[in-house]
Specification:
single chain, 179 residues, mainly alpha, 2 strands, 64% helix
């Protein structure tokens, strides 16, 4: 897109980035909640809301603390699938490990189904990977080649055959270079 609407499109990049990052946060919460609900149902045949809420209230804050530290919600994850998936998966596996360690030290592992936790952990890891991969694929068409607003002003030089989305001709905007 070359012309006057370039500046309007570049101005929307920040909002689009914010929406995609918020989508990652929502997808991660959705993946963790659905996985542990599924694990409870598989293990017990019903959902124990008290134990489920305890697990979710414990693992979700730990996950987000580690994910933020791992930079799983930085803009760079929108352009690199490996970063996107690996940072979130590592954060979740570290959160699950931390939760198991906490349970061990509080000696409450006897009240806790390890099979349910294992099923929930594996399914959450897979679902986080799947949802983040889908968001990555969507982000390529939603935000373009780059999530940043890059403006390239061509002054006295012809714009090439495949310009970036931020390419503008200086004469089209009545811009003059200082001599």
């Amino acid at each position: 897109v070359v012309g006057r609407n370039v500046l309007a499109n570049l101005g929307k990049k920040k909002r689009k980035r914010s929406k995609l990052i918020a989508g990652l946060v929502i997808a991660d919460i959705f993946a963790i909640v659905c996985s542990f609900v599924f694990a409870f149902f598989v293990r017990f045949g019903y959902i124990d809301s008290n134990q489920l809420s305890n697990v979710l209230w414990a693992i979700i804050p730990i996950y987000f603390a580690i994910a933020l530290n791992n930079k799983a919600y930085q803009t760079s994850v929108l352009t690199d699938l490996w970063k996107n998936v690996s940072r979130s998966s590592v954060a979740f596996l570290m959160a699950a490990s931390a939760m198991l360690l906490i349970l061990f030290f509080f000696k409450s592992s006897s009240d806790f189904s390890r099979m349910m936790f294992g099923i929930g952990t594996v399914s959450a890891s897979l679902l986080i990977t799947l949802l983040r991969s889908l968001i990555f694929q969507f982000s390529k068409s939603y935000i373009g080649k780059t999530p940043y607003a890059d403006l390239c002003i061509y002054d006295g030089v012809a714009i090439g055959p495949s310009p970036s989305e931020g390419a503008v001709d200086a004469s089209g905007f009545n811009l003059m270079a200082d001599p």
